Amino acid sequence: MMGLLSTIRGKKETVIGNGIGSAQVGPLNAKTKKLVIQEWPRVLAQCPELFTEIWHKSATRSTSIKLAFGIAENESPMQNAAFLGLSSTIQAFFYKLIITYELNDDQVREACEQLGARHVDFISRGFNSHFWDIFLVCMAEKIDETLSSYMTEEDKKNEMILAWQRVVNCIVHQMRNGYSDRRKQQLGGSKGGANNGF
Fold first, then answer.
1. Domain count of the chain?
2. How does pLDDT run across 40-55, given as a tens digit for each residue?
3. Per-residue burial over 140-155, b = 16 or more CB atoms within 10 Å of its CB, e = otherwise
4. Terminus-to-terminus CA distance in the chain, angstroms?
5. Which residues form the Globin domain (predicted)?
6. Helix residue spans in 48-195 (DSSP H)
7. I want to staple 14 with a disulfide (CB 3.0 to 4.6 A). Which of 3, 44, 109, 153 is the partner?
8. What 8-state DSSP symbol labels residue 76?
9. Residue 20 has what pLDDT?
10. 182 within some domain
């Protein structure tokens, strides 16, 4: 799991299943794109509630995420309609990137940077960009579990897991870039143009 967290920050090695592979953050190659696009319907057929489960798992791992959504410590995130409703928004976003845009580099980058920049508006409600780290880990675990539930050939399964990790890492990395750029602009504007090293 620490390997995956290193990947979040742009390092190259990550643990997948029982092996180690490279899930670099950068442009996605054609093979990675093709694998994820083709596997999308099977993944969702195998686990129709994929994004709900990932979103729920994210909240159960972080009291800060729960607090940002106004969920009491002893309240189940699954009982909070506002929180639960976001899982379909997240799924729709991934559908747009993977299926509609077919993981086109420019369209994905623009959409992710825009969404990441919009997250700055949620800071006042408790959003922290580290929430993406938790989401990314939960997504990697659930994708691994889902693919492992129906893919039996180990090499193909590991290749698919790695492809999904690369795509998700790329998406989160670009969202983080949009978020950071907007934060820098806001901090620079509020400090008379100073960058403050952020």
1. 1
2. 999 999 999 999 999 9
3. bebbbebbeeebeeee
4. 27
5. 27-180
6. 50-60, 63-68, 81-95, 105-118, 131-150, 154-190
7. 3
8. -
9. 33
10. yes
Element (H, E) at 15: strand 13-16
| pTM score | 0.82
Report the C-alpha gap between 29 and 32 in whole angstroms.
5
Fill in the DSSP letter of residue 24.
Answer: -
Residue 181 belongs to what domain range?
Answer: 30-188
The per-residue pLDDT for 73 is 79
Tokens representing 41 are 């319907």
Instruction: Name residue, tokens 């009982």.
Output: 79
Percent of the chain with pLDDT over 70: 83
Q: What is the pLDDT of residue 191?
A: 58
Q: How far apart are CA 49 and CA 170, in angstroms?
A: 23
In angstroms, the CA 169 to CA 178 distance is 14
User: Would you say residue 157 lies in a domain?
Assistant: yes
| Cα–Cα dist 4/10, whole Å | 10
Element (H, E) at 32: helix 30-46
Choose among 167, 135, 131: nearest CA to 55.
135
Position 94 pLDDT exceeds 70: yes
Look at residue 7 and tell me if it is in a domain: no
The CATH number of the domain where 129 resides is what? 1.10.490.10
